[in-house]
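Protein-glutamate methylesterase/protein-glutamine glutaminase: structure tokens wanted.
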Amino acid sequence: MGRAIRVLVIDDSALVRKLLSELLNTAADIEVVGTAQDPYVARERIKALEPDVLTLDVEMPRMDGLTFLRNLMRLRPMPVVMVSSLTERGADVTLQALELGAVDFVCKPALDVSGHLKDYAAELIEKIRVASRVRIRANSVLPVAGAAPPRPRPQAPALRHYRTTDRIIVIGASTGGTEAIREILMRLPPDVPGIAIVQHIPPGFSAAFAERMNRQTGLVVKEAAEGDRMMPGHVYIAPGDRHLQLARDGARYVCRINDKAPVNRHRPSVDVLFESVAHTAGTNACAALLTGMGADGAAGLKQLHDLGVYTVAQDEASSVVWGMPGEAVKRGAASAVLPLHAIGDALLKASRARASAERSH
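Answer:
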């Protein structure tokens, strides 16, 4: 085995520092080389200890986690996993941290629920391992070099309630996905077909993510709810810890939400969404599988591809983690393998081309 992954734990709580250190040190390939109670101490320990990965508390005294992260990504870019509180503010700050270049996040451990610590430790260790393999670049949150600037973001038009969408776009993502999704949505016009998204995200964070996308794009973005009708210019994000499926209701596509067992260890699962779309919409859909660890979505994308649906996998160079899209490529599930900045236009063109071809018949 090679050198252990060196981790510096930054948190203002001595109890949390101790617990995170103990959990991480149970992994043979991870070594907590130090801890810091605030960013000023952390700055000196990063220089002295040269860690591979940081865990960073979202909210700290003296200097908040976002200010520290912004400076770190400018001066000494390195992989960071945020440790977030399960609050509305914690969710919003965490999403800002991902925008600034943090690789991923975990929620604060529940100190009084020892029965959940085993699962928590497994999640934390897996995310540290993934983070250690991510290449972090200075100003990593800037648009990809050579990419076209995002489209202007006009307010999405008001749509009549009876209007529906014959075309739909479905997207799945995990690690690195919140920023990848933002990049795609920023480039889409207000009359884009309705979009359904599964992003692996905990309860409480999906609503904050949807609200953030609603503010930052020219689309109407919401957390999907049971019975929501898919409409052009609207984006429906699966709620944390609930599966999202699409069903047909007369001439309309509607969202179905359920809490059935996790699939591929995930709820929401990308495969659950994609497989429902294969049955419900067939070639009326276009699909993309973005950055993320594991294989969730690869089987569903293959199913769509085999029906003749236009499918895209994000390429390795622009992915934070080329797990899910890489597995899809391996299975022959992708009509195209594209850099992130090209995916939105490709989905839009494919959707419009199919609509145009059907009108000409």
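The domain at 5-133 is CATH 3.40.50.2300 (Rossmann fold). The radius of gyration is 21 Å.

Cheers.
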